[in-house]
Amino acid sequence: MKNPFENLDKALEHRVRLQIMSVLVTHDGFEFNALKEVLNITDGNLASHIKALEREKYLTVSKSFVEKKPNTKYKITERGRTAFKKHLDALEAVVKQQK
Amino acid sequence: MKNPFENLDKALEHRVRLQIMSVLVTHDGFEFNALKEVLNITDGNLASHIKALEREKYLTVSKSFVEKKPNTKYKITERGRTAFKKHLDALEAVVKQQK
Fold first, then answer.
1. Pairwise CB contact (< 8 Å): B15 & A22
2. Scanning every residue of chain B, which has its alpha carbon at the shortest distance from the alpha carbon of A26?
3. How far apart are CA B72 and CA B30, in angstroms?
4. Number of domains, chain A
5. Does the ipTM surpass 0.95?
6. Which domain holds residue B51?
7. Is B8's Cβ below 8 Å from some Cβ in A?
8. Long-range contacts of B79-83 (CB under 8 A, 24+ apart)
9. Distance from A43 to chain B by nearest Cα, in Å?
């Protein structure tokens, strides 16, 4: 039996990571505070999940200043896009197998 | 916008927990060692996820002796069955929203 669970991406299991990726996949760059607001989570929580996704090279971080304020933006990478798509396919397969 | 991420069950996010539930939902009781073999994970790993699911009252544990050997069996509860179904529905909605 083919096992769709094996295709699930450990780095994308957490709900917050799925949400981050779903925002980044449809936006060309997204800012830390905006992301925090969309996800409605704390700085620390968001930062730790961002770090994990950065470690996987699923997103890139760019820091700049906008009107003298620090501005941190995240962009999904091609690797991230592929991994997210694969993970969604695996989730779909898991759901289908159960229903 | 309705947010399907909010319906994801934190206690069922992990791949191993999804797999445990998918086995229990289709079997009337499943033994520890058999589960370990199906999932191909270590004792400790399985035990910790089982404990988490037991804490949520998603499964019950029964211990007995079979031919003088200790035998530990797990059964999904109605609460677990409902939660698993709800989580799968949420996953389905997440996938649909992305595609």
1. no
2. B98
3. 8
4. 1
5. no
6. 4-94
7. yes
8. B80/B21, B80/B24, B80/B25, B80/B53, B80/B56, B81/B25, B83/B9, B83/B11, B83/B12, B83/B56, B83/B58
9. 19
